[in-house]
Design goal:
Length: about 120
């Protein structure tokens, strides 16, 4: 199995349930792992692997569309990756909301989603 990782992708976006979150952007951090069965020979062409630039574009495109829940984002990103790269066997995605709108809260919140195909 071969795994491509995109780490600490940062986005400013309007995701959340609360009115304030839709007005003021929050910072989100996305970590992504995409695994697939490697070919029987050494990879020497881009067509033999999953292009991490295209993975980034999939994540970026979805992060720009407002969602109430970061769980929704993770599940839809995983589905889009599998749709674009059918050889995908497993997607693991973590999305962190850096500044949740919780009074007297110090820290951040995140979700992790793993989908096996």
């Amino acid at each position: 199995m071969l795994t491509i990782k995109l780490n600490q992708l940062r986005f400013f976006a309007h995701h959340g349930l609360y009115e304030e979150e839709l007005m003021v952007a929050n910072e989100f951090i996305v970590d992504l792992e995409v695994s697939y069965t490697e070919p029987t020979r050494v990879i020497s062409k881009m067509t033999e692997t999953i292009n991490y630039v295209k993975l980034y574009e999939i994540v970026k495109k979805r992060m720009l569309i407002t969602a109430d829940l970061i769980e929704t984002l993770a599940m839809e990103i995983a589905a889009a990756i599998h749709e674009n790269f059918p050889q995908t066997k497993r997607v693991s995605i973590s999305i962190t909301k850096k500044y949740p709108p919780v009074i007297n809260f110090s820290g951040n919140v995140s979700i992790s989603f793993i989908k096996e195909f």
